[in-house]
Design a protein that fits this description.
It is a single chain. α8 packs across α10. About 8% of the residues have low confidence. The protein folds into three domains: 61 residues, Beta Barrel (OB fold (Dihydrolipoamide Acetyltransferase, E2P)), CATH 2.40.50.140; 79 residues, 5' to 3' exonuclease, C-terminal subdomain (DNA polymerase, domain 1, Orthogonal Bundle), CATH 1.10.150; 47 residues, Ubiquitin-associated (UBA) domain (Helicase, Ruva Protein, domain 3, Orthogonal Bundle). It is 45% helix and 22% strand.
Length: 195
């Protein structure tokens, strides 16, 4: 198994790149989140990788963070989800945003991803709920909480306090959260619940 690659970026044409490592050019498929972070051609690149061996092909997938790789592997275990859909999910949202969608049961956001219909979105939520703890919540060395938007941090806090994801979604939809910190949003939400 090839777990990671470090080498010079020889070519890139979304979503594929060629990474030259000691004279060998590896063709690697990447999600757009990783592709957009790539340096110019000729620069050194490090990618976490997943090698998929099929009857008709061996395909190498590359990711900027270990969290993306872990989520990709988890998505592959969901029935009806293949590598194309898993790459689409990672191209459309960060690891922490995907985790938040699952916790809040936000099928509306998931169905906007190319290749993901309502049934697939519902299956993703049901099957990934149990795997959230095992998937990494880090992005490039930053924790998911540190990179989250204030509204999403407040939503996570409300879920941690025992509110159901659907309740949290309805509650936050009623609030004006623009420009407010997570603490301010949380206070507003709790006042609304108490009153």
């Amino acid at each position: 198994m090839i777990g990671s690659l470090r080498g010079l970026l020889a070519a890139k044409q979304a979503p594929q790149i060629i990474l030259e490592c000691n004279g060998v050019g590896y063709q690697v498929e990447t999600p757009m989140s990783t592709f957009l972070e790539l340096p110019p051609i000729g620069q050194e690149v490090f990618l976490y990788t997943h090698l998929q061996v099929r009857e008709d092909a061996q395909i190498l997938y590359g990711f900027a963070s270990d969290g993306e790789k872990a989520l990709f592997r988890s998505l592959l275990r969901v029935s009806g989800v293949g590598a194309r859909i898993a790459l689409s999910v990672l191209s459309a949202m960060s690891v922490s945003d995907f985790h938040r969608c699952v916790r809040l049961e936000d099928t509306a956001r998931l169905v906007k991803i190319p290749g993901v219909g309502r049934k697939t979105a519902e299956r993703l939520i049901i099957e990934m709920r149990d795997r959230l703890d095992r998937a990494s919540g880090t992005e490039g060395g930053r924790t998911a909480a540190a990179s989250a938007e204030p509204r999403n941090e407040a939503a996570d806090a409300l879920v941690a306090l025992g509110y159901k994801p659907a309740e949290v979604k309805r509650l936050l939809a009623q609030l004006d959260t623009d420009g407010k910190s997570a603490e301010e949003i949380l206070r507003l939400a709790l006042k609304r619940v108490v009153n």
